[in-house]
Amino acid sequence: MSQPDFELVALKGGRQSIRSLEYGETMHIGSDPRTEALELHIQQQRLVERVKTHAETWRSSFIIWDVGLGPAGNALTVIDALRAEKAPVEIHSFDISTEILEFALLNAAGLDYLLGAEAAIATLLADQVAFPEPHIQWQLHRGDFRKCLSKAPPPAAILHDPYSPARNPEMWSLETFGAEFDATSPDTECLLTNYTRSTAVRVTMALAGWFVGIGVPTGEKDQTTIATNRFNLLERPLDRAWLARVNASTNAAPLRNGIYARGPISPEDYAALCALPQFQ
């Protein structure tokens, strides 16, 4: 019998989460899945307010990209937050594999955030689409992210939550962040949130075209990262003082070609970074 790829582990406060034995990483280690999703993505992005405004302005579905579906903590918390709004929403969840979600479903009794959602998850896994509420369409895109993203409409919100850059550098590369940015519509404001505060990742995002700022604290993290295609949406944008720290950092080189290589930023990349509109 093959060994399982995942295990349940206890978090602070008694709740359980999932640990990937392959990557050696535990999901939501500093907080429970719902709290992290609320703080990092839903509240910071003002999702409920923006969904209402979008429906009133455009009369079309608000598109959310859930990049790194994992055990579905972010998607299910978004569904709960938008359950009463009735405005049309599409959640497009991307992941290379659904093994961790299948494991979570089998262990739903130990993962309280999943309770009540088992039927929707089973339908999503079987049919690639589910309707947890009549106004919420949940679509699964299984496979390589950059090959799948063209199948989804342009996003208004991106919840970027794959494994860490050290374990999954492809999903934090200049090419991936550039593909996400290119997929946004010039007519629609888009916010991207994720849990990192890495200088190298922030440099990568900026060089990919995003306006980048300091995100809210969550769990054990004193800050995270937020990005957007509209500079005026940032409350705490990275500034020229941050550029000076980048130039002095020993780990500021952008991630390229799916390779996690730590090192200082090159003169060419630093010049390109300084020339971006955000820092003028």
Would you summarize the structure shown here?
The chain is of the alpha/beta class. Helices cover 32% and strands 20% of the residues.
For the record, what is the CATH homologous superfamily label? Vaccinia Virus protein VP39
- Tell me about the largest β-sheet: 8 strands, mixed
Integer count of domains: 1
CATH C-level name: Alpha Beta
What is the CA-atom radius of gyration, in angstroms? 18 Å
At the third CATH level, what is the topology name? Rossmann fold
Share of β-strand residues: 15-25%
Given as residue ranges, the uncertain stretches (5+ residues, pLDDT < 50) are none
Category from helices, strands and their pairing: alpha/beta
How much is the average pLDDT? Answer: 93
Please state how the strands of the largest beta sheet are arranged side by side.
6-7-5-4-8-9-11-10
Helix content: 25-40%
**How many helices does DSSP assign?**
10
Approximate shape: globular
SSE map:
Elements: E1 6-10, E2 16-20, E3 25-26, H1 33-43, H2 47-58, E4 62-67, H3 73-82, E5 89-95, H4 99-106, H5 118-127, E6 129-133, E7 136-142, H6 145-148, E8 157-160, H7 174-183, E9 191-194, H8 199-207, E10 211-215, E11 224-228, H9 240-248, H10 267-274
Parallel strand pairs: 4-5, 4-8, 5-7, 8-9
Antiparallel strand pairs: 1-2, 2-3, 6-7, 9-11, 10-11
Helix pairs in contact: 1-3
